[in-house]
């Protein structure tokens, strides 16, 4: 209610009162959630940010409520961003704007030393392999299944200590080389990994950087990813339920030791998986 009232301040027409933004100030690498109440004669379509459009979907648990997730890339700079919401009212095309404040996340820096061949591989075969794996994964992440497989709130992939947070700037062997794109869980080799929610197994592969990898498609553009695994318990195309055993943790790929790297994507954009989960669990998904 608080949020709906907030939006009424932005604009006094009726439509704005039906659109709420849960988090209107957001750091790079995080996700913003918009909520919409259904109303007779109104059909919501999408939310545009810069040149990208994000679909407005029904809440998987409440059909009278709709939502859109707006992922902010880690590389986005602080700015006030306009979100343009497209809908029709009694068949007429309409737009509504909401503003999002993107701020710089307070991310730490982390020094890592690994075998130099794993930082900047020189061999053409390895380079080819890495680029093939990247292209294949991006194709998957950009596939937005127009239905949700989710029925319940998310859970953690394992109950374990978090050893490295999302977003730490990573300095490999002395040179800045990206950022930590997920959350690491302490896990000795052979620790069971569970599906964070219901979904379809989109990929099972042994990759150069991420080692034993499982990607789960939760529908409506949401994916979770499980890296460095030692054993797989699922096959591509298989439907899994929240808590199902995906396989065992390991130390495959580019690692300094055994752990689970857990990450998430929305419409292809990498976001903080734990912030996404608490955002969805606190606002959209209820245990039934
Ligand atoms: Zn990691």
SSE order and pairing:
Elements: H1 2-10, H2 14-17, E1 19-21, E2 25-27, E3 31-37, E4 42-49, E5 52-55, E6 57-59, E7 62-71, E8 79-89, E9 92-103, E10 109-112, H3 116-119, H4 124-141, E11 162-164, E12 169-172, E13 175-179, E14 183-186, E15 192-194, E16 199-207, E17 211-219, E18 222-232, E19 239-240, E20 245-249, E21 259-266, E22 269-271, H5 273-283
Parallel strand pairs: 2-9, 10-12
Antiparallel strand pairs: 1-3, 3-7, 4-5, 4-8, 6-7, 8-9, 11-14, 12-13, 14-21, 15-20, 16-17, 16-19, 17-18, 18-20, 18-21, 21-22
List keywords for this structure.
single chain, 288 residues, alpha+beta, Immunoglobulin-like, Glucose Permease (Domain IIA), 2 domains, 10-stranded antiparallel beta sheet, 5-stranded mixed beta sheet, 5 helices, 22 strands, 16% helix, binds zinc ion
Description:
With 288 residues, the chain is of the alpha+beta class. The chain has 2 domains: 2-103, Sandwich (Immunoglobulin-like), CATH 2.60.40; 109-283, Glucose Permease (Domain IIA) (Distorted Sandwich). 16% of the residues lie in helices and 45% in strands. The protein is built from 5 helices and 22 strands. The chain has helices at residues 2-10, 14-17, 116-119, 124-141, 273-283, and strands spanning 19-21, 25-27, 31-37, 42-49, 52-55, 57-59, 62-71, 79-89, 92-103, 109-112, 162-164, 169-172, 175-179, 183-186, 192-194, 199-207, 211-219, 222-232, 239-240, 245-249, 259-266, 269-271. The strands form 4 sheets. Strands 11, 14, 15, 16, 17, 18, 19, 20, 21 and 22 form a 10-stranded antiparallel beta sheet that branches. A 5-stranded mixed beta sheet has the order 2-9-8-4-5, with no helix packed on it. The longest helix is centred in the middle third of the chain and has 18 residues, at 124-141. It is globular. The chain starts with a helix and ends in a 5-residue tail after the last helix. Residues 1-12 have low confidence and may be disordered. Bound molecules: zinc ion.
